[in-house]
Amino acid sequence: MTALGKRKDTYYALICFFVCFIPRIIINLGIKASTGGHDDLGFLAVPSYLAGYDWSGVIKHTSYYGFGFSALFMTPIIKIFGGTPFLMFQIMWATVAAFQSLVAVAVYYIAYDLFEYKDRNFCAISGIIMSYLTFCSSCRLENDSVMPLFIWGIILILSLLIKSDEHRMEKTICLDLVVIFLQFMHTRSVIIWIALSIVVIIYRIMEKRWPVCPKTYLAGMVIGTYLVKKTVSYVQTVVWGTTDLANSSAGLKNQLLSGAESGSAIEYIRSFVFLCAGELFTIIQFSNILFAVGLVSILFFLFDKIKRDDRKSEFYSLIFLLILFMGMLGASGLYWNEDARNAMASGEFSKGFFYLRYISTFAMPIAFWGIALTRDINMKYMALLSFFYIVLCLFVISNIGALPNQDLWATFASKYKGNFKSMLTQNDLSIVSIVSLSVFFFFWLLCRKPGKIKALSMIFLLVATFYNYTYQIQNGAKMWGESVYNSVDGLRTLNTAFLDDFNIYCNDDIQKYALQLSYPRIAVKDYEDYNGEKKSVLISRDTDGIKKTDLYYVICDDEVIYFSDAETKKSVLERINK
């Protein structure tokens, strides 16, 4: 590449990053508190431990939630800014925002330099769309928020290995390290080893050569898996106090066994199919149909372009993504099967459509090919896809009801105070959304040649994706954050110095999480663990108990402090009133 080309790449990469990063930072400034409750606590369990805080009283009532990313990046933030929680969270969210924004840069580089889509504007806009096409906002402290970047990182390394044998050992080691790091982040990442290994074997059979250094790859997989298992077991014991936890391999195995043993085989299969179909439908809705177009485009690409030597990087990346997604879809369907059966038995069919977070990380990259590969597909197939999609949506709406959390115009209408909202029902709005998006895709596919109309259609798609992120994902997190903040809002009006010198208990989950995250330095305990010790304080939303004892202090309508004894009450009130 020429020096001019490298400079252009740099400019485009910077533009991609800041177009994704700056809006996220601005939106996050309006959020006052943690937005994830127990997930945030699980995510920050190891960093808080490494930073010297004692959150064990709360952590042991949460699920194991990985620690690779959070331990590396959040520990120094907690250690330095733990005394100022608002600033601490803003810096944490900015870190997550940076990783989500880097997705745009990675996609741009992969599309332009490796897959050789020679329209820089197309590659840049595609990257920005992929950055915003996430089911987790930047203010949610969850591994799912940052995992997409690492999935694109695997695609990048795999493509580089296929493109050239140069530095194959180093690339293989990098590939191993990324997957091992992802396993430290979340147990379900073990499926990435399976998908990668299948792709490596397929490549060896078809191309008569190994894409990786086989011994190095195998050694990394075996040693890495062993180290992850031992380290996770140790961390669970030290930080959570037990190894029998959800989100662990043992928890997953127990869930699958108990689900398989309950109910008939036919009912089990029926609910599994129902849940998988629901997740697929929800992903299609959430991605503005991009995911469905991507799947169809990929199938045609695999069958029609299989002998194209110039598209090998794309070809094997697609195989990896399809195996990964289908494997995770199946695992998710099995894991949540019991919940799906209970929902079906109670007639709440829409509950089969909301477990998107667990597979969206692996599904959204497929939507990229929904944008990129349509130029290879015959229009009539896309027309049939849109038609069947509309029919499917109408069937779901008429039999199950609208899915407002995944609907474009319904969210808009819910914010509009005029007659438009009263004129249309929720189901009507879902139909409007489906039809309008499908019509847009007809228009978009008809204008595949470069030009102003094609550019405008890409911008429309970008706006629709940003809308989904801002008004559904980010606003949803913001509303949860406000709930968490308000649960201890009254406490903030007091002199809270007493929290440092007394045993602090809480009996409300949201309030408990909010209390720990709002005051990181104190050791909050769950009221279930109270053993009658003196110098103890219970911060509660329960106002009914105040009639039974005078050992209380009313902060506001829904916040009360209860005291273990009269001496503790007197001492605490003296500090509050200082």
Automatic annotation (TrEMBL):
Coiled-coil intervals: none
Record has S-adenosyl-L-methionine as a keyword: no
Domain of life: Bacteria
Keywords: Membrane, Transmembrane, Transmembrane helix
Upper taxonomic lineage: Bacteria, Bacillati, Bacillota, Clostridia, Lachnospirales
Membrane-crossing residue ranges in chain numbering: 12-31, 64-82, 91-111, 145-162, 174-203, 280-303, 315-335, 355-374, 381-402, 429-446, 453-471
Protein name: Uncharacterized protein
